[in-house]
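Translate sequence into structure tokens.
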Amino acid sequence: MKDILRQMNSVNGIVGVAIHSISGEVLARALSGNLGEAALTQVGTMAQRCIHDNQSAAGPELQEYEYAGLRIFCRACSQVVVSALCAHDVNVNLLHIALNLAAKKLDQVAVPPPVPPPPPPPAKPAVPSPLADVRPRADGSLTLVVGNMSNADASASFDSLGMIALNRATAARLRELYQADFQKLALFNRRSDRRGVFPVIVINDTSSLLDGAVIIGPGVEKKLLARSADVVEVQIG
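Result follows.
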């Protein structure tokens, strides 16, 4: 079939050729670069219409249609339909000859299996949530990553009360693991050997950027000598 496609495309004015099975599957194709899957689908629809027109009206084997400024000529054969996508100034007489020759050759060859559609793009791997690693250790503590809030960002009440913050997902994870609600958390920074118990507020953060993190202000930062990205041990206070 590749030879037939190549010979058809050599005719001046033909910009693409497709061969469909009687049931509509694509068997072979050779389309110019600006004709994609949408054009191929439309030509398949016209090929099916060509078969229907021939069967219902006993009309000519060659049918002409229009699509996206192109002339589409479909020629029904015994096993397949060959379609030529053409510019409007195509030499129709020469085209008829080429399609008839292609039809005779196609009637003599075995029908190959359909061309499979292009595979879908690979799915992006799922990014695991940091919450998956948040689980109690043997001593009942678990670890969270420190996120520092700068002085400019910290509200006066948040920092003056020595509060810490969790997003909703992290707070829910802690309640699930400890099977209890909490108002305070005990934090231990092993790097600085500093610890403290702090009231907790839950912030409405819908992204996953703060999953598995505990947000502290400048006051708590000084008390724990904690830096951003430090890992602190957490227990219900």
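Note: The chain has two domains: 2-107, 132-236.
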